[in-house]
Design goal:
The chain is 71% helix and 0% strand. By secondary structure, the chain is mainly α.
Length: 156
């Protein structure tokens, strides 16, 4: 394996989170929620938009390459899509506290695992790595709505 391929796998696995034997998607989401406090939420909204667009594009390329390297379709160790999903849920919020991060993590995981209706269907909307990424983008929408409702009522 070339150094470049190792970097791509590391990125698509969000470091080592994707290698967690029990629940790599949950581990990737947890890393995303924790890292958001320092790496994402301090940024102004336009910068956050640029970051999530960049993660979608580079994550799709990395996920597609990881599929080829690992010889599997949508390998569970590819969790860059979970990072994107959690950060999309957090995108509009200005403050960062543990309740917000926890709510984003929990609601994103609920919709990402459950995959009701269009979330499940979205897996087939785009080919390769883009298909891996898009269902987490779609799962982030209802998760964001749930967190926004909780935030509106000052629950989180």
């Amino acid at each position: 394996m070339t150094p470049w391929e190792k970097i791509v796998l590391c990125y698509s696995r969000v470091g080592g989170a994707g290698l967690c034997p029990a629940g790599p998607g949950t581990a990737g989401s947890a890393v995303a929620a924790i890292a958001a406090h320092w790496l994402f939420l301090p940024l102004p909204i336009p910068a956050r938009l640029a970051v999530v667009i960049g993660i979608f594009l580079t994550g799709a390329l990395a996920a597609g390459m990881a599929e080829r390297l690992l010889g599997r379709s949508d390998p569970s160790e590819v969790v860059i899509d979970e990072l994107l999903g959690v950060w999309l849920v957090l995108l509009p919020f200005q403050e960062s506290d543990w309740r917000l991060l926890l709510a984003a993590f929990v609601f994103f995981r609920i919709f990402d695992i459950w995959k009701p209706g269009p979330i499940h269907a979205s897996e087939n909307w785009l080919p390769g790595g883009y298909g891996i990424m898009i269902d987490d983008v779609v799962a982030a929408v209802p998760a964001l709505l749930c967190v926004a409702i909780l935030r509106f009522f000052h629950i989180v």
